[in-house]
Amino acid sequence: MAFPGEIYARAGDYLAGYRQALSDAWQSVDQDAANRAADLLETTISGGHTVFACGNGGSAAISNHLLCDFLKGVQTDTPLRPRVISLANSIELITAIANDIAYEDVFAYQLRTLARPGDVLITISASGNSENIVRAVRWARDNSVGSIALTGFDGGRSAGLADVNLHVQASNLRHCRGCAPIADAHPRPIHEATRDAARDDPPAPLLTSDRDRNGSGGWRRGWDSNP
Fold first, then answer.
1. Is the dihedral of CA 49, 55, 59, 60 positive or negative?
2. Domain with 167 in it
3. Residue 25: inside a domain
4. Using CB atoms within 10 A of its CB, is residue 102 exposed (0-12), middle (13-18) or buried (19+)?
5. Of the candidates 6, 41, 55, 104, which lies 20 to 30 Å from 79 by C-alpha distance?
6. What DSSP string describes 73-138?
7. pTM (2 decimals)?
8. Exposure string (b/e) for 2-32, b if CB count within 10 Å is 16 or more?
9. What pLDDT, on the 0 to 100 scale, is given for residue 216?
10. Digit-coded pLDDT (tens) for 165-185
């Protein structure tokens, strides 16, 4: 599946074609792989271990977005307390490692310090062949850290190294990487996995028990930002 496969005369026609391409990409993700990824994440979170995520470019943005999905989305109204770290989050640390050691080691180097057996690594790479991603997955495999690879194209090397490969069947990133079906489809399996991790946990009051402006007591939900 490649997009765009033709020149569109109108913006609306492009939108319709892209919407279909995105739907096809999303439906190509293997359900059994999604179940295995959800089970791995649930085991990691319930065991008090840490979820790491990493990616380059737009995939780094997805990695950082996982912090919201897990830290905010999963624990709100549940007793779960996921520990999540995006290895793409500190530009200072990334550039220090890249400048002094090698860009290929920016993620694996962090894992050596932070990760422990029983943790899990989520990598996001359309090609699956970015060297810093491959090295991170290989380090995880060699050090008893679970791994979930989100890939496109043919999956690349990281697909074969990871414990679970969530593969999006799409093959074209031209024109706009951030708007490509692969990049847009990659967050969805993780969104669903986080929902799955929280589905069996009963609602619980979280975060704040502050009195409201009227002086009355009671819980105020952490996700309610209204005054």
1. positive
2. 11-198
3. yes
4. middle
5. 55
6. IITTTSS---EEEETTS-HHHHHHHHHHT-GGGTTHHHHHHH--TT-EEEEE-SSS--HHHHHHHH
7. 0.74
8. ebeeeeeeeeeeeeeebeebbebbbeebeee
9. 39
10. 998 876 655 434 433 444 554
Q: Would residue 71 count as lying in a domain?
A: yes
Task: List CB contacts of 149: < 8 A, sequence separation 6 or more.
Answer: 122, 123, 125, 128, 133, 137, 155, 158, 159, 161, 162, 164, 165, 166
Domain count, the chain: 1
For residue 218, the model assigns a pLDDT of 36
Res 179: pLDDT? 37
DSSP code, position 202? P
Cα–Cα distance for residue pair 6/60, rounded to 1 Å: 30
Q: Tell me, yes or no, whether 214 lies in a domain.
A: no
Q: Say if 225 falls within a structural domain.
A: no
Percentages helix, strand, coil for the chain, rounded to the nearest 5?
50, 10, 40
Q: Residue 218: is it exposed, middle or buried by C-beta count within 10 angstroms (0-12/13-18/19+)? A: exposed
Give every residue of the chain whose pLDDT is below 50, as ranges.
174-182, 185-186, 202-227
- Can you list the positions of beta strands (E) in the chain? 50-55, 83-86, 120-124, 146-151, 164-167
- Is the distance from CB of 33 to CB of 182 less than 8 angstroms? no
Domain with residue 62: its CATH number is: 3.40.50.10490
